[in-house]
Backbone:
């Protein structure tokens, strides 16, 4: 396998984006990514678009390629629920690592608000185990994660305050991220007083519905060294699927697919979790951030909420997590979340992130943890600046 | 790049499949493919599902993986309109060629009839250039290909009879293919008398709406040689995108994306079109088969209809095409068509296809041409038994 580096990244403003169509929204991240890499549209021979299908276009990848005039490329769309653009990045990585192409682009883009909110909620609910759990039991997505939260709080003695602390941290960092959807700080009291969505999860424990895009350009080693002085290497990108059927789960305090993907990724990168300087994890709900920390191995089972209580997930702590605002406050445009994580971590490893949100880089590694559904898909990406 | 071989193929019955759900339909091709390769579900570390989204499931890949108990794999869904499962195969190929995995499975599956016919027609129509051509002009898919047909007939002096001859051939071979949707022969007169859908295309010039699945298992060279005595090698799989916007097309008598993909594929495989013993091309409408023959380079521009008139595309002719019935008569389950082509061609190269439909294998090469939209996507795959 050839070594592969991130050589260009771009990011759009996240939020409700009635001002642009799908192609325009994607272009907001494609253009800066091309500029970052010093490349033109005709230099891209492989284009994979991550889009979860939350839009009016039947062929979103075509609309996006067309607007950006990316015509020379092998083209496809990838979907892996909320891990969609991590899967897209994985396909771009394979295309370069195999030697098929020297450069590849992964665009994550979702314009969720093109659909009505009740239909979005239905589509996301169907992303569980449609046949039994949605159709017969009526489970929607906050309900799924509420099952995980009740199991976690009960098993380890964590409290609703601990969940609230996750939201407070992520809002703090979103407040200084110009691309974030929610740019205001909140307090633990505000979270605790917000209305219940699915006990014990309240409004401020949940990520929003978001429009947005993020683009990553990859290149093979030789090409990367010509294009940039600050290549960020993909040490590993590993995925794993999991059953959609809750009755087949062995445990509700973690996601097996994420555990397997993390084990594979650390093995491939030949490092241990303590070497990660900064991480983005899939905090679609606050409980998901706690489970992610334990699934990755940043701490033992039942210990994540203690790290949160100690402030160890802030910049300056043991492991800064979601210091771009996370899904919770930066926003969660389904198909763009994976590449958005890679945007933030690439900037972190280059040492050129927003000053207030820049984590200290000691070992030179960063990790992205991106989950689809309730563990139906999981992708772990380990980046390095070495 | 490592050499990659097809080591297992499976195919479901195509047609209106009210008798099965999506997972069951996919399993009809997954099970025989695993048996063909001598592998178990736990042997598959990479699973890419081709599905165009014509179903009630938000996450069709998860429903399919779950039913087949394919839990250990990196999982994702791929969409490239009607070229969906060729794109899926390309991703499986890259994963193996790169050295990431030794074995990968591409499942194409579509259960179109879960949706109402008017909604299917709308979704397919949106797959053109949604904003202008569908929304403002009301173009549906037969209309798009009718534009190509009128240009072709006008430019080269071909007639509606020539289009009909394509349908007659494809029905003839579908009649002996137990997996085909339409298993009856038809005559040129029947085609000519069938009602116009979009002039000059008539009912029997159009492929049907279909449910079905087809699965292909790939392995790296060393692994392939352990698994089978009849590996079928992927000499090239190349894709290209194209504008959805008809006003940006230079010509209407061919599809540029297919031409570029074919050029790339022949260059990679280091052969010329005359070395192909048997081909499957994307005959969503009869005119598409003529354009495909010229885009691939089986003949010069404006010559395809003459080859058809001479019967050169039948078994025994210069280049047997769609001798499994093609999209036209075997059926066209959007996301399954690409892998269905690979199923037929693998069986052909092994010399174990349906006796009446087996083409003579002289040079040992076969080609699949799979188009998405009206040339928004194109994939060309060249297989060999060498």
Residues:
């Amino acid at each position: 396998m050839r070594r592969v580096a991130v050589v260009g990244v771009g990011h759009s403003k996240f939020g409700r984006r009635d001002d642009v169509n799908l192609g325009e929204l994607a272009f907001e991240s494609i253009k800066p990514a091309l500029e970052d890499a010093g490349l033109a549209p005709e230099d891209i021979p492989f284009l994979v678009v991550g889009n979860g299908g939350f839009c009016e276009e039947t062929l979103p990848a075509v609309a996006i390629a067309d607007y950006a005039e990316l015509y020379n490329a092998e083209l496809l769309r990838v979907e892996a629920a909320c891990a969609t653009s991590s899967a897209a990045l994985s396909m771009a990585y394979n295309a370069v690592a195999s030697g098929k192409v020297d450069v590849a682009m992964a665009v994550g883009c979702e314009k969720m608000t093109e659909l009505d909110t009740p239909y979005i909620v239905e589509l996301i609910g169907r992303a569980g185990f449609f046949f039994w759990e949605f159709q017969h039991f009526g489970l929607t997505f906050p309900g799924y994660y509420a099952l995980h939260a009740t199991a976690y709080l009960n098993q380890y003695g964590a409290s609703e305050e601990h969940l609230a602390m996750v939201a407070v941290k992520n809002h703090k960092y979103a407040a200084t991220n110009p691309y974030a959807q929610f740019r205001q700080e909140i307090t633990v009291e505000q979270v605790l007083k917000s209305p219940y969505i699915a006990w014990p999860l309240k409004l401020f424990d949940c990520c929003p519905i978001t429009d947005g895009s993020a683009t990553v350009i990859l290149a093979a080693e030789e090409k990367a060294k010509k294009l940039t002085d600050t290549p960020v290497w993909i040490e590993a990108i590993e995925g794993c699927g999991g059953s959609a059927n809750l009755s087949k789960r062995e445990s509700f305090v973690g996601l097996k697919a994420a555990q397997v993907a993390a084990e594979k990724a650390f093995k491939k990168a030949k490092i241990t979790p303590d070497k990660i300087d900064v991480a983005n994890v899939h905090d679609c709900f606050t409980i998901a951030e706690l489970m992610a920390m334990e699934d990755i191995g940043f701490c033992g089972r039942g210990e994540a909420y203690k790290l949160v209580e100690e402030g160890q997930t802030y910049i300056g702590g043991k492991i800064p997590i979601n210091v771009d605002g996370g899904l919770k406050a930066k926003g969660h445009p389904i198909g763009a979340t994976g590449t958005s994580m890679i945007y933030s971590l690439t900037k972190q490893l280059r040492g050129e992130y927003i000053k207030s949100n820049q984590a200290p880089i000691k070992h030179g590694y960063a990790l992205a943890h991106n989950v689809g559904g309730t563990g139906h898909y999981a992708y772990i990406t380990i980046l390095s600046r070495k």
Q: What stands out?
A: The domain at 4-116+209-227 of chain A is CATH 3.40.47.10 (Peroxisomal Thiolase; Chain A, domain 1). The mean pLDDT of chain A is 96. DSSP finds 14 helices and eleven strands in chain A.
